[in-house]
């Protein structure tokens, strides 16, 4: 494997290359996903992702004939709900934009590669992924909005006895991606509790104050927890809800209770689609539809949980009760053992939907990324200037215009309820 290939594969790995983290099968998911996932399936997915990664991003960045049809790729997580709603409820069509039925992708690596190859022109990506794409591989990606806020949690296994972050010492902890806020937030929580995050083979001996971080695709996390091959994980919904309902897990902490209204997935588009004046009307329409969808789903959570589930339009391979829990279950009285909600006064939901990409959050994301343990070629991270990234990576024009036409977005609890709604002070408390 060439150095370039290795760099891409390491950066965008979904953990499929580690046979110690692969379940021979996942019978837990036969009734949930409708099929068992075999070791062969995982290995095949890993080979495919690696093969796609063999092509440099620069080769994908060549001028493509513009196609105004929305081609949306998504991971089956509630992070994608607003984008899926924009298609399902006809909000794209309302803007005069055609959209194909969204394509479900089972891992972050294939989604990144699908976007890089222009298979998709609209995706949701974990907030740090575009940072790595733009500044490590020079891929012309733009963040144009937040897809949602919060929407993730740390789940611990019933076999572990973990009731607080301090108990993660000596344990195996999974995140969905190295470049994820799950990794960033989890490591900040660990360090605050006196736990040192490390990246080692699972067979390596750990000190009592060390927690080993591994990467697993979200569908692998609940069965791995049930099989006791990991002790805890931090992931997007509904895989936290799945851990509760299907793997005997408990919520240790909701991420939105650590970092108030934090970005998780962002809306990502190709730079040409964002910066070409001839596409401006189309790009504005895309964002108008996304904002309308965010407001709609916020006001119709139970309805859209069913519509998006396998009991409805089958965007998610989960029954409605799983998606419903992920969308609505956020009760401090219920989540008191462990004490998963410690800042109820923040007024957050389990997942929120608001699009304004606060520059303060982008800056904090970059700064915390610098403080995180990562694998692969990470030299570029140390060189990043948070202020520059906040200005260069994000385009604010289309989302701001769409928000100005839809003032209901200001009602979201992540938005300051006094003063300038477009500016806020980040609140991060472990």
Characterization of the model:
The structure is a single chain. With 430 residues, this protein is α/β, with parallel strands linked by helices. It has 2 domains: 3-149 and 264-316 and 352-411, Periplasmic binding protein-like II (D-Maltodextrin-Binding Protein, domain 2), CATH 3.40.190; 152-261 and 336-351, D-Maltodextrin-Binding Protein, domain 2, CATH 3.40.190.10. The protein has helices spanning 3-11, 39-53, 57-60, 81-88, 91-94, 108-116, 128-136, 181-192, 221-226, 239-246, 271-275, 280-299, 301-308, 320-328, 359-370, 379-383, 386-392, 397-404, and strands spanning 72-74, 103-104, 122-126, 141-146, 149-150, 152-156, 172-175, 196-198, 210-215, 232-236, 250-254, 265-270, 351-352. The strands form 3 sheets. The protein has a 6-stranded mixed sheet with strand order 8-9-7-10-6-11, sandwiched between helices. It has a 5-stranded mixed sheet with strand order 2-1-3-12-4. Helix 12 packs across helix 18. Residues 1-29 and 32-62 have low confidence and may be disordered.
Q: Which SSEs are present, and which pair or pack?
A:
Elements: H1 3-11, H2 39-53, H3 57-60, E1 72-74, H4 81-88, H5 91-94, E2 103-104, H6 108-116, E3 122-126, H7 128-136, E4 141-146, E5 149-150, E6 152-156, E7 172-175, H8 181-192, E8 196-198, E9 210-215, H9 221-226, E10 232-236, H10 239-246, E11 250-254, E12 265-270, H11 271-275, H12 280-299, H13 301-308, H14 320-328, E13 351-352, H15 359-370, H16 379-383, H17 386-392, H18 397-404
């Amino acid at each position: 494997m060439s150095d370039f290939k290795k760099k891409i594969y390491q950066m965008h790995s979904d953990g499929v290359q580690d046979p110690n983290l692969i379940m021979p099968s996942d019978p837990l998911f036969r009734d949930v996903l409708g099929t068992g996932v075999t070791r062969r399936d995982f290995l095949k997915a890993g080979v495919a992702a690696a093969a796609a990664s063999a092509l440099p991003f620069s080769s994908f960045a060549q001028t493509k004939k513009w196609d105004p049809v929305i081609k949306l790729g998504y991971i089956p997580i509630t992070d994608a709900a607003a984008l899926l709603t924009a298609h399902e409820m006809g909000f794209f069509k309302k803007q005069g934009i055609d959209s194909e039925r969204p394509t479900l992708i089972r891992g972050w690596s294939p989604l990144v590669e699908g976007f890089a190859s222009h298979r998709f022109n609209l995706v949701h990506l974990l907030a740090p992924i575009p940072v790595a794409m733009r500044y490590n591989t020079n891929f012309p990606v733009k963040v144009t909005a937040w897809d949602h806020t919060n929407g993730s949690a740390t789940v611990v296994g019933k076999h572990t006895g973990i009731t607080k972050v301090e108990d993660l010492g000596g344990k195996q902890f999974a995140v969905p991606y190295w470049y994820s806020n799950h990794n960033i937030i989890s490591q900040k929580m660990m360090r605050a509790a006196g736990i040192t995050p490390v990246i080692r083979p699972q067979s390596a001996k750990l000190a009592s104050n060390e927690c080993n971080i591994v990467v697993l695709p979200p569908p692998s996390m609940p069965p791995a927890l049930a099989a006791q091959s990991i002790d805890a994980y931090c992931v997007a919904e509904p895989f936290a809800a799945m851990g509760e309902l299907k793997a005997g897990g408990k919520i240790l902490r909701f991420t939105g209770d650590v970092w108030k209204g934090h970005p998780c997935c962002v809306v990502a588009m190709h730079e040409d689609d964002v910066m070409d004046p001839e596409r401006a009307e189309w790009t504005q329409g895309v964002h108008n539809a996304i904002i309308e969808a965010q407001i709609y789903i916020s006001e119709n959570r139970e309805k859209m949980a069913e519509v998006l589930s396998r009991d409805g339009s089958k965007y998610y391979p989960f029954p409605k009760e799983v998606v419903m829990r992920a969308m609505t279950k956020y009760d401090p009285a219920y989540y008191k053992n462990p004490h998963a909600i410690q800042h109820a006064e923040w007024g957050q939901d389990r997942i929120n939907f608001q699009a304004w990409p606060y520059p303060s959050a982008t800056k904090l994301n970059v700064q915390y990324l610098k403080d995180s343990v990562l694998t692969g070629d990470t030299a570029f991270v140390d060189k990043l200037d948070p202020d520059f990234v906040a200005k260069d990576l994000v385009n604010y024009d289309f989302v701001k215009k769409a928000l100005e036409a839809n003032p209901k977005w200001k009602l979201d609890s992540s938005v300051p309820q006094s003063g300038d709604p477009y500016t806020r002070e980040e609140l991060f408390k472990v």
